[in-house]
Write a structure and sequence with these properties.
3-stranded mixed beta sheet, 2 domains, 225 residues, elongated, 5 helices, Rossmann fold, alpha/beta, Ubiquitin-like (UB roll), 9-stranded mixed beta sheet
Amino acid sequence: MHQSIDKKIIIIIYLLLLVILSTTSGKSLKNKESYFPTIGQVNIQGLSSTNNSKIYNELNYLFYKNILFIEKKKIQSILSKYNIIEVYNIKKIYPSTINIKIKPTKFVAKLSNNNQLLVGANGKLIADKRNKEILPYIFGKFNSENFLIFKKNIVLSKFNFTNFKMLYFFPSNRWDILTNDNILIKLPQDNISESLNLAYKIINDNNFKNKNLIDLRVNNNLIIK
């Protein structure tokens, strides 16, 4: 009987010790956090004043937080909502500042059915009513992956987007291009950059002047009209 009572007393003592230790460690951690200054400044550079302000307002939760415990993932989730952003850099400046430097994407095309929607070099759609750049129009339903693959091939070729007037995307994952000189280039599904370079060579060859169609859709079969 005495042994049973002793065991109960020992268990109660252990439980009390656990409560005391956990309370003490919690206070210690809280005190430890308070040793470091809280965030008092967030600097955002790279976008328009309007977009910088929007991001700044969304990052208000950072103020008065301990800089050591700020997770960059939360900041990244906010920045990822802005399609205008190409790349960014988040840097903690101890003890109390966060600097965010942003590089906006370049506009490379417009949607044919909406002049306000522009296509960025990052493959994302950006609404911009005030943009007056002369850009090629894109026809057809494409996604970001389709466009980025196509853009990569353009970069690898001797062309750039300023050479184009219109771009046509087909459900078969194939592109046609109308140049500023009204030459229609029909591209194959594969070997796009090589086909573009061949088209570039033909366009600049005096033997093919006054031609307005270069059909490269069939492998090893060239049609020029």
